[in-house]
Design goal:
OB fold (Dihydrolipoamide Acetyltransferase, E2P); five-stranded antiparallel sheet; 4 domains; mainly beta
Length: about 280
Amino acid sequence: MIQIGRTYDLQVVKDTEFGFYLDAENLGEILLPAKHAPDGLSVDDTVEVFLYLDSEDRPIATFQTPKAEVGEFAYLEVKDNTHIGAFLDWGLDKDVLVPFAEQHRPMTVGDSYIVYLYLDNQDRIAATSKIDKVVLEDDEHDFYPQQKVDLIIANSTELGFKAIVNHSHWGLLYKADVDQRLSFGQSIQGYIKQVREDGRIDLSLKSGQEIRDNYSQVIQDYLRDHNGFAPVHDKSPPAQVSNLLGMSKGQFKKAIGALYKQRIITIEKEGIRLV
């Protein structure tokens, strides 16, 4: 079923002086205004358009791309404050409304906020900054380790950064796993590091292979700087490995296992040696 607030491929069924009508199935024929239509468009062509309501609440199509669709989050700037709420720039000619009742705190013109787009009870597109009631904490999901996901940085904690994962769930980026500057509202790609027993999600900005490659490089750099030898091996105490190389025992074992298979190092009784 076709819904307002989403992007679809629709067929042109009628050409008029003020635009083209598209077959939107259950929504009927929807106008694509001439100002938004590309040159050469004709009946029977199929076009990818976004559907929303115009200023008179009539369904309308556009080639403009919104910064978020219904059911998604975005970091948007407030363009105006009125007696009904704040209007945010979301990439279309018509700004999106955040009613006063949906503002986590009063919004200020010029400031930006993370909001969630939804359809109100009259099927008009609106937004809310009360994202905690929308993002799921540990509800059922099908995320799995090393899955690539879309993240929106939403908050910082003592442990790291809270992020919205694929527009649906909360995840956590630990400080130790972040080696770049992150800003509130930033959209970035990441990976599922692990799903804990309680369903909560730990995140990483690097894939498992990238992480292993980094640890492998750290080990090789240490060996080159210390005459090709490091006094640690797969039987060394975790604290010794951590103090010497700044990684966990598990990370170290995986890295030297790969280096050994590639015949880059040998593993000796007293430590590891560069070949």
